[in-house]
Amino acid sequence: MHKYILKRIFLSVFTLLAITLVLFTLLQFMPGSPFNDEKLTDDQRTVLNAKYGLDQPVYVQFGKYVSNMVQGDFGVSYNISKNTPISQLIQTRLPVSIRIGGMAVGLGAIVGLIFGVIAALNHNTFWDTLCTAVSVLGVSVPSYVFALALSYTFGFRLSWLPMLYSSKAEFASSVMPSIALGMFTMASIARFTRTEMLEVLGSDYMLLAESKGISGAPLILRHALRNAMIPIITVLAPLIVDLMTGSLVVEKIFSIPGVGSLLVTAIQSNDYNVVISLSFIYSAMYIGIMLVVDLLYGLIDPRIRITKEGGNA
Amino acid sequence: MSELSVSHPLTGDAFLPDDFELRGSTPAEVDSNFASQNYWKDVFKRFVSNKGAIVSLVVILLLCLLAAFGPKMTGYTYATQTLSEKNFAPRVPGLEKFGIFDGNEALRTTSGVKIINGYTQKGLTDTYYWFGSDTLGRDIWTRVWEGTRISLSIAVLAAVIDMIIGMSYGLISGYFGGRVDNIMQRIAEIINGIPRLVVVTLLMLVLPRGFATIVFALLITEWIGMSRIARAEMLKLKEQEFVLASRTLGAKDFTIIFREILPNIIGQIITQLMFSIPTAIFTEAFLSFVGLGIPVPMCSLGSLISDAFNSFTTHPYQIIPPIVVLACLMLCFNMLADGLREAFDPKLKEM
Amino acid sequence: MTTKTREKVLEIRDLSISFSTTAGTVNAIRGVDMDLYRGETLAIVGESGSGKSVTAKATMGILAKNGNVESGSILYTYQHEGAPKTVQILEMKKRDMRRHINGKRIAMIFQDPMTSLDPTMPIGKQIMEGMIWHYKTTKKEAYEKAVELLTEVGIDEPEKRMKQYPHQLSGGMRQRVVIAIALACDPELLICDEPTTALDVTIQAKILELIQKIQQERGISVIYITHDLGVVAKVADYVNVMYAGRIVEKGTIDEIFLDPRHPYTWGLLSAMPDLDMEDDRLYTIPGSPPNLLHPVQGDAFSPRNVYALNIDDRREPPMFQISESHYAATWLLDEHAPKVALPPELQVRIDRMKKEGVR
Fold first, then answer.
1. Using CB atoms, which residue from B195, B205, B313 is nearest to A283?
2. How many CB atoms are located within 10 Å of the residue A107 CB?
3. Nearest residue of chain B to residue A241 (CA atoms)
4. Is the ipTM of this complex over 0.90?
5. Which of chain B's residues have a Cβ under 8 Å away from the Cβ of C47?
6. For A226-284, how does the pLDDT look when each residue is reduced to its tens digit (9 = 90+)?
7. Residues in chain B within 8 Å Cβ distance of A131
8. Domain spanning C3-236 has what CATH number?
9. CA atoms within 13 Å, Cβ hemisphere of A172
10. Taking CB atoms and an 8 Å cutoff, what residues of chain B touch A181?
11. How many angstroms separate the CA atoms of A184 and A146, rounded?
12. pTM for the whole structure
């Protein structure tokens, strides 16, 4: 088990390092950084290069870059707000994004699970068709379409919820973005749960459990759901990543002061340093989530757990 | 026994004269369990019986037709700007008499609802914008189908190239196994470890914006899923007898991979291809929405939605057509793919 | 064995079951009658798809959702507070069935021990679950009884095994665990659905002996479902031969093995591998069973039957009674039918069995 964890951690760190290298390389070619400014004289450029350590060999620069990134020093923003440290920009925005993302994942996972279980238990009935239809719709329609529809209906026409994000009403203004964002997660989990549950329900061990006389909730919770949950956890990681992508657009629509809208603004105003820093943060979060889910999977599935401990399997 | 016509004591039925003679040989063996089952015929039958998939296919074909001919139907072009005719609500000849699509638009302000009509205000009796006109006075009908054409082209092109790359990668990795597989899988794992969002964003920053760049960005992120499926299927199939047989007969690796194994997994590949088209459409729309899409004056569904978003509370008719087309495309491709998957793998349905 | 009064445990009458599939309706069981008496062993023999397992699952009330009972009844009699009580299994609510019959009265052992245990639950818990569920046994008592059961089914270090997961055990061990689970609530009827098919030959005999030992100790009735006549010869008192959803021949073990009347039974007996056989070719029945998606015209076995009469293609044969316990459904038993001799190879084999005994 320890060997497995170490291997996974090593691979994750290596991936992050590879990404950092790509980002670093890109940064060297980006227009708009102070080092490429045409107005600078050669002397000024030398001074600047010395100041930023650019006169040193590339691998030293890269080492310094990595250590800066890890310490949360991402440099300064050029265009969005001149010379503000990026870490400062991110600090206030990250919690907002994480809260809305977390709400979306929670909502999507729980509702999706319930939908999937209902559909599987009532296979080939009206409920199954309804759940399948809802989940096909949720998977097919992009989150920003939901966001726009919600925003127009409940924000603009009915005025039930704030159309734009306001820090004074954090919860109320997080509801619509979370629903819009969680729709895809919900639909995917519902679909996947349905398939997994159907497979489990048709398995021999369910038949054995039934022939033992177990029925009702214990049968579903103890035997069916437990087994169906294991593969469901694996799809949760990629879903969280899709959520990150969706958050860019949803944050823009609801004017949420989060990381996603910062990235959009940075892209649109060509603030490369911010784009690259945020890319690093997104990658780090993504890799972290993948790692956690992988390890979680190993913990939950006894087949993996025992084998990795070197049991007599 | 020759003149037998008594009724049987147990069943009460009449017998025929030769009933109790040995029939002799068993009839020629036609194995009814397997004889009539042609795999592709079965797949086709199952697919056709899936109503959702058929309707989706029809809708997709219809949208393709509109994407091909729609822009030529109104006399406008997607780039023509008529600034004096901006923000006109939809007006369709014929329908206008029924009080719908008559160019009226309700403006909601704090003081109440006000009905305005751009056509009558400007005194244009013979001007029709079927879906209305946008903030620069361009015909939305033309632009929507132009955008559909571009979005679809990008998606299909990207999905097909993805399929070729991913399939080859997965098949080769799975077939050779061992060290080759190990290295190829680690590489794929690292590429997969980079969020799609980051890859696409960075690429779009480095490369000039345009059609080819978007296709390229979709390529490098989407092939992994396809390669996984191809590899998994390969691992399942390569130990089977028909592969062994063809290897014993001296077939080369290349022949085995692409002539023997590929036809057996083509079902899964096609299904996955259909699933990757909506993903590509979505990613393109997303890129356009954050400002990394097709450069103006060209348009895609994403860029249309993005443009119309800024005025979607005042002129909702501008954002509805591209959103409806986008949602329809995504939905139909997903349902088509679902139908194909069930047709290829009936177990999924009968569990 | 027929001298003392026999207590009927299970009575199946005219059972017909169909399955609705996307390809159409499959008539898996077409009018099955079956009887089982207390303490006795009944074997149901037939090829795959002949409806053996469906009959068993209907008895357990665990038919797949697309299965429909077209007609018939299943009467089950058990001891309730000292007096026999009879229930109509097919008319019971699923909930009552699970509460009062499954596990407690009738238990089942499945074919593949690799898939019939819950992979995410320790085996101890799987054994204890039924006891706690049915009898509200305390955890401690259930644990002790589970350890006892594991010992009884021949698993060493039972305490250590209790905590293990199914994938940590070998196939034979897992089947022993499945047996322990089946015995946990002291059932009166044990249904074994191909209990040894998925196991190594060396382990097969041990599992059969274990089931026999348990049957004798506990005095329970057992139904064996198998396609292996070798297994039947070892364990059964009575044999029902099934073909294409019907019983084609039934009788005591001696009647079936030494005086078979149905050509299909002849085929099955001839196809048994045998060390003493002089002929080194293994006999097989030509063709394959009919597809029950289509209605069966005449005798379902007719297309594969070398001894078929013309009437077989037209009309399904009724059950002819041969002795008090021996029945067969073949027109060859009709008074008008020509006398047909057994296949010579089979005759040789039967003569030898008569000398050496069936078992």
1. B195
2. 18
3. B195
4. no
5. none
6. 888 888 887 887 788 778 778 888 888 888 888 888 888 887 777 778 888 888 888 88
7. none
8. 3.40.50.300
9. 12
10. none
11. 10
12. 0.77
